[in-house]
Amino acid sequence: MLETARNIVQEAGKKLGYSAQVIDTLLQPNRVIEVKVSIPTKTGERVFTGYRSQHNNRRGPYKGGIRFHPQVSREEVLALSTLMSIKCAVAGIPFGGAKGGIIVDPKELSKKELEQLSRSYVRALFPVIGPRVDVPAPDVNTNPLIMQWMLDEYEKLAGQAAPATFTGKPVEKGGSLGRTEATGRGGVIVLKALLSKLGKELKNKNPTFTKVMAGNAKLTVAVQGFGNVGYYFAKIAVEEGFDVVAVSDSKGGIVKNAKLNNAGKHFEPLDIPLVMGCKKKQGTLAGCYCSGGVCDINEGKVITNEQLLELPVDILVPAALENVITEKNAHKIQAKIVVEMANGPIAKEAYPILQKRGIYVIPDVLANAGGVVVSYFEWVQGMKGTVWSEAKVNKKMQDLLEESALAVWEQAKKSHVSLKEAAFMVAVRRLVEPKS
Ligand code: NAD
Predict the structure, then answer these.
(1) Which residues does the annotation mark as catalytic?
(2) Segment 327-338, tens digit of pLDDT
(3) For ligand 1, atom 5, which residue shows the shortest CA distance?
(4) Which CATH class is domain 33-173?
(5) Where are the domains of the chain?
(6) For residue range 247-296, what is the model confidence (pLDDT) as tens digits?
(7) Are 137 and 164 in contact (CB under 8 A)?
């Protein structure tokens, strides 16, 4: 992962005409801190290793999640902190990249031990974090409650209230309204912003887009992953006029029976909130074919996650895991646009195949930046001691992400590169020349 992140930054830097020295400096993290984190047990102290990689703060305080996972490593946090610098820069927010973690399987710990571990990590990192220095957030296996414990420990040590030190807090403890939906909502905003450009390119080349542009059809969407990101993406996409026709979770996906209607669509739209209600009741998505207020078991069929990726839809949204589109299935993808809502859902080898086939990829660093944008708004609210309405948060996110999507589009056109390369070029330029 580190190698991939470095390569793409290097390529973007070269295309922008920066010297090898400038690019090398950008690739070096400012610091990677390794800490000993411990919790008391009946038999003595249990010690874990933790990290915090602070990659770059030329644009503002470091920002990035903390993960609790057995596979956390120095290399992983370093790579992820580099990507956070890129993501914050693409989104145009005044933060640099960081990432932290503890090598631990949190399932082995009791709630009390988890709290002790979280507090111990903050004690170890106290001198190098803070609202104007480094602002952590939740990541894999960490959540708002853990942020609340961490903030409490930080404030005890600092001897003052400092709510802007952590984001992703519970709303009643200073979290921002709109954060839960932010990543999914941001993805739809970016998709719509780029569609206004892409649609014109695809019109005339593609009958569906010709009909959509003429207002005679809706675009069809398949979403892999029905967690926080996938669910809100699907729900908000429907609200914004798309037909979400297939969704999946780890056990498989669902699609309503194939029909060819006047608009040339292949599948019936799903009623996303109803599907979620059904999933909550049943535990999985299988069997939840919902539309028009009813979930009718006879009307649809269960598909595998592999089949979902290959459906004849207009837009494919991998929102679960990394590397799900590989060189093995890239030539079977039928969507015209892939929105990378998960981090790294397209394997490196699959990119050129999709590109050659004329499939547009909206890159993760832009598509899923809504979460970090609203984290920035949480930080601003914490610094100012104010609370913004959800409508205000959503509007501000929309303005920021539309601007970012446009900057990426223009860079892609100017340099004749893919949207992914363009996103990295925009970010690298903003990191090297923070005032640009
Ligand atoms: P989540 O745990 O809430 O949901 C994950 C979903 O993926 C679940 O529905 C799960 O059933 C499904 N899933 C698991 N294995 C699967 C498989 N093999 N095939 C299909 N579906 C599978 O996680 P999330 O917060 O929605 O995050 C999803 C992705 O988005 C991750 O890559 C994450 O790094 C990325 N992301 C999340 C955020 C955020 O704000 N939550 C921000 C940026 C990026």
Answers:
(1) 99
(2) 999 999 999 999
(3) 227
(4) alpha beta
(5) 33-173, 179-367
(6) 999 999 999 876 655 555 568 899 999 999 999 998 999 889 888 788 88
(7) no
